[in-house]
Structures
1.
Amino acid sequence: MYAKLYSAQTAATYASLVEIEISLTSGIAQLSIVGLPDKAVEESKDRVSSALENSNFEKSEDFKTLKSKMSKITISLAPANLQKSGPLFDLPIALAYLKATGELDYLPNDSIFVGELALDGRVQAINGAISVAKLAKDQGFKSIYLPSANAKEAALIDGIEVYGISSLSEAVEILRGEVRKEPEKEPDFLHRKEPPKLLLDDIKGQELAKRALIIAAAGGHNIALYGPPGTGKSMLAKVFTELLPDLSRKDALEVTTIHSASGILHGSYIKRPPLRAPHHSSSYVSIVGGGAKISPGEISLAHKGVLFLDEFPEFDKRVINALREPLEEKQITVSRATGSETFPADFMLIVALNPCPCGYFGTNKCSCSASAIQRYQNKISGPIADRIDIWIEVNQIDYEKLLENKKREAKEHNNALKIIKKARETQKKRFMGNNLNAKMSAPAINKYIDLSPDVKEILNMSAEKMGLSGRAYHKVLKLARTIADIEGEENIAQEHILEALNYRERKLDF
């Protein structure tokens, strides 16, 4: 007896088509899986066997009679040269087995099946459901059968029928025509508004830092917050994502796909720009990506959102230097002996740091030696410092402001949202798309930024005095362009250049 159906193997943020074949023949009792299966796939033998028995399929007399005649079972996963990993082949193997034994009369050849089976027959969630749905659509399949827990995220892909399955028994009933199940509807996520968790109004004082956050959000710029402990640097970073607009449908789907592939998707989709804040003790692989089965790291999980690195100099130096590629290329390539994968990594970087290991540099509280301070500051290399557009010192604020009992309002926050929206609309018209000032290339700078002789002279004199690199010089121009957009000015004026230059000045000698 023979049966065939289609499944998929997920890897990174995509999926590959896998053809599952089962052959039952006479011979010595044996069950084998061929096609480069890993340990998790090999273990599906036991999961499928228990799921079949606990779903009452092995209590059929016909099945018992057939089993006694056909004792050699061969399961083939093709293509044979593709490494198969994970438990997502459990459901299709069980269904193909039932078709081969006669328990099922029909298996659609225009559908893809994926899902992990529990021992009692329940179908459990998998990683990368969106990637599987994309594959099904691209390969011309009509439908996809997958765990109910993954149905809503898979339904984000239009043009494919998505059926959420809760158990092996339900899948069999649907395929037999005993139960009619409607395809999962596409979630209507574009019209749902989520209230902000933190308002700009919640932050007392720090007016200069708030201004910097608005500029950064308007133009997509990277920002560094430095100052002594307890001044609100982390709080400023958290409120920053609340200033960003919702993701477009295209971006939301891309971000959700990455989180789905990583197995950390909480809910059916990601509508808001993600905020990733790994601890400074996190490993290089967890932040950059990699592993035995190459998977995205925090850099990619922050795609279209914010990567917040608190205690920045405390991160491994390899991690800090690894930021150079994604900050320029907006993607990162992870290479291992088993192969390489390229992940999207278009994020805004926010770093928070103290001026020295103890945090009280320049005061009588500082207990750090000169060598310790030097080592601490040297961890941030010049190329990384150049890639940060805005440097803001966050100082202690008056205690009186902390004790102010104002009614919680969103006046300041809403005003900031209006400013950011208007500036982004200006940039959208300028670049005829969704590009932001921070992403301008050198040719784009020459095309869209035209300085008057007086403004150019001020910029060049200041750049020479400050010893700016070519990259830092361009950063100042992009930042000045954003400041002018916020002010509603068509041309960059002297005050815009001076403010942009002020954001590059740092009291610390990084």
2.
Amino acid sequence: MMYPGPVLRLMEELTKLPGVGPKTAQRLAFHLLKQETESIQQFAQALLAAKDRIRHCSICQNLTEDDPCRLCVSSERDQDIICVVEEPKDVVALERSSEYRGLYHVLHGAWSPMDGVGLETLRVKELLGRIKAGGVKEVIVATNADVEGEATAMYLARLLKPLGVAVTRLAHGLPMGSELDYAADDTIARALQGRHEI
């Protein structure tokens, strides 16, 4: 059965979201169509407001409404340690553990030539600028424990060690192939405690 044009277009747009295939897009489209117009307008306004008001922090590259972000300007954070993560959601995962009190740097991806993500597309230049400005003693590389994350970690270690900072990696507790966002809080805490030099 063919759907009306607007429904097809809605399903097509939904399939552009990560993890949403044709069946899920169909289910989401029909769910949305059942909603009251006011609910749909609120949903659309929330999307537009987030897109309009959220930007990258000029220091750590995390998502923020205020620039610089609240973590970068906090006097309670340890200023001589930076934890490098792949995505903004990883900052949230590490913060949930309540173990880490330093600063962050978000790469916005991992080195993955097969997916068209080159090293030049990551926020490495900004990280180098922060370290060269001085005051940083340790960089914790907290990229995911998968092939892309490990390759990114090794690249960063080779790049950062000559700058005179300790470069460490999260240790045990995070199984190979896992993502920080799905790890339990105590697992992240143990990984932070057991980090090791790369």
3.
Amino acid sequence: MNLAAVDRYISKVITSESQTFPFPEDTKLKVGVDLGTAYIVIVVLDEKDNPIACEKRAARVLRDGVVVDYVGACSIVKELKAKLEERIGTELTECAIAMPAGTESSVKTHMYVVENSGMRVIRILDEPTAANAIYKITDGAIVDIGGGTTGLAIFKDGKVIRTEDEATGGYHLSLVLAGSMEITLDEAEQIKMNYARHQEILPVIRPVIEKMAAITKKYIDPEETKTVYLCGGTCCMTNIEKIFEKQLGITTVKATDPFLVTPTGIAVNCVPETEQ
């Protein structure tokens, strides 16, 4: 993985949250919708995967990758889509989505949420595989830690040979932090997102991070997997890769800002599977 190139690319995606980039009139836009436990994100790229615009909103309409507030999820996706269409001046008609591994039974609900906004879902992926559209690894494991789950995909010779997902994510970090500090969940979320307080809270949340590493360790063979690549919002936690590396005994790396890796990878894959 060319980490510097990934960081430059994701930096431009982050910029597209506040700045709309121009694109040729005849380009076919690629849209990725990420229905996450903590955030819903929509990323728009041009057909050459250049970032155009991005919108996100904090939400608690999913739990462990499953929609628990259908009306709320539909409303947020519609809102974000409308904002993007106003920004770029054109209608968004097609998109790709991604699911945590093991939540295949919820695929139709995710599709209904997105299609309720007027977009047609043309591609469905698992989240770590979507992230690999950005990381572009051929061998190793991508671990995507979102708000509700820790999911991984193991790659060998550029192909996915295994996917797994278990229910431990950023939401669980916040629960532990809120209980320890006797504060609300919202207050815990704000503290967790404050990089200046990461060293302060690390002793409290470290056992949960170690559980995420233990989930990963169950499914990887250190003889076969030489590097683990982290992504997902929870991996924004300072030095989380060092904790994983110590627990796994395997080199562990992440992008400087891993939050938008998966949503952007979903957008990159917004083409029919037959065209891949």
